[in-house]
Request: fold
Amino acid sequence: MKTSMIALAFAAFATAGFAHASEVPAASAGQSAAAQIQQWNPSQTGAMQKTRAEVRHELVQAQQDGQLAQISSLYRGS
Reply:
């Protein structure tokens, strides 16, 4: 019984591994696999750097607007 359970578990893991591996796109004939890898670049996201004073100002504004209290109530569950 244990042997069949172990064999079934192994088969399930092997199948999942093959399915996960097949999700990676194959390189086309004209491109190498390294050319298809895209890395995250913070300059491409459009995010702007904020100063410490700007972040503090946003925090004070969120406290005054009640946004922080609303978020806190969501996590407290009340």
